[in-house]
Write a structure and sequence with these properties.
Blueprint (H helix, E strand, L loop, with lengths): L12 H4 L36 H19 L3 E3 L10 E5 L8 H12 L6 E5 L9 H7 L2 E3 L2 H10 L3 E4 L4 H4 L16 H9 L3 E7 L1 H4 L4 E2 L1 H7 L5 E2 L20 E4 L14 H25 L7
Parallel strand pairs: 1-9, 2-5, 2-6, 3-4, 3-5
Antiparallel strand pairs: 6-9, 7-8
Helix pairs in contact: 2-3, 5-7, 7-10
């Protein structure tokens, strides 16, 4: 059986009794050791997840503002369905070569909501394999898509979290299959919301699939380059890496649907109920996406 004293943050008398010149702590057992902790840096603007107010501010001011206001000309419906306080899980459709939908959803909450709140976006773990990019994504509010991370953000920190249950299957989707939602996995996002007793707000996005359309996938080049996928788009690969950001000026519409509440934590133990909720949420998003596509008169002007 392991010695429980090893996990204590209080130094043992044996260690503190050693002289300052030795290996032990240079303080008596009853001393206040807080002065030995690293000093607080007032200029440091990183949270526990690595989010940087400074980097996020620059990203918003010089990139998102332009795309949101002038390029995609985003229109928002149902923003009041996003909770003012407490945890909330936003669940959205997802598509495009390098989808701008997450950034536009976060920007919509910041600009249109009566009580703007930061949005934490879950991303796949494969992003860690790209130097530079893997350092940037946590600074602008992205976290690894893991149930423990989602639960901590929803329950402990009472934050807003955005998930894309289609995952990589959504971003690999070809233009001919636009706005046809892929399967929502095993419903892990529903279980996370149930355990945290946080509402789920379904989100529908129209415009991303025309802004970053994928006409084909080249498996051989994907294996040669080491990319997660190698899409053929209007601007990639002939314009190089920056071609992934060569978005077409499609009109964006974002609709936030009424939240789904989970008052009882024990609901998460019923796998059949979890799957049922996941299926219903996907169906609601799919129905509204089709409706939004049918209502618009033009891809470019809405």
């Amino acid at each position: 059986m392991a010695d429980s004293t090893r996990t204590s943050l209080r130094p043992s008398e044996e260690l503190v009794a050693r002289p300052a010149s030795g290996e032990g702590l240079p303080a008596p057992a009853d001393a206040d050791l807080r002065r030995y902790l690293p000093a607080i840096e007032p200029e440091r603007r990183l949270n526990d997840w690595g989010r940087s107010e400074r980097v996020e501010g620059v990203f918003d001011r010089y990139l998102l503002e332009f795309f949101y206001r002038y390029w995609f000309r985003v229109e928002v419906e149902g923003i009041e369905n996003v909770p003012d306080t407490g945890g909330g899980l936003l669940v959205s459709n997802h598509a495009g070569a390098l989808p701008p939908d997450a950034a536009m959803i976060g920007k919509a909450i910041k600009e249109e909501h009566p009580h703007p709140r930061p949005l934490n976006v879950t991303v796949e773990h494969f992003f860690k394999g790209y130097p530079g990019f893997s350092m940037l994504i946590p600074k602008i509010g992205c976290v690894a898509a893991h149930p423990a991370n989602v639960h901590r953000l929803l329950y402990d920190e009472e934050q807003l979290v955005l998930v894309f249950p289609e995952g990589r299957k959504g971003t690999e989707k070809l233009y001919k299959d636009r706005y046809k939602l892929r399967r929502f996995g095993r419903g892990g996002f529903v279980e996370a919301a149930m355990r945290a007793r946080a509402p789920i707000v379904p989100v529908c996005v129209v415009g991303a699939e025309e802004a970053a359309p994928i006409f084909a996938q080249v498996g051989l080049l994907r294996r040669l380059t080491g990319l997660i996928y190698f899409p053929i788009t209007p601007t990639f690969p002939h314009l190089g890496p920056l071609g992934m950001l060569g978005y077409l000026p499609a009109k964006f519409r974002i609709r936030f649907l009424e939240p789904i509440e989970f008052p009882d934590e024990d609901m998460a133990d019923d796998r059949g109920l979890v799957q049922s909720y996941a299926h219903d949420i996907r169906a609601r998003i799919q129905e509204n996406v089709f409706e939004m596509v049918e209502q618009r008169e033009s891809v470019w002007f809405g």
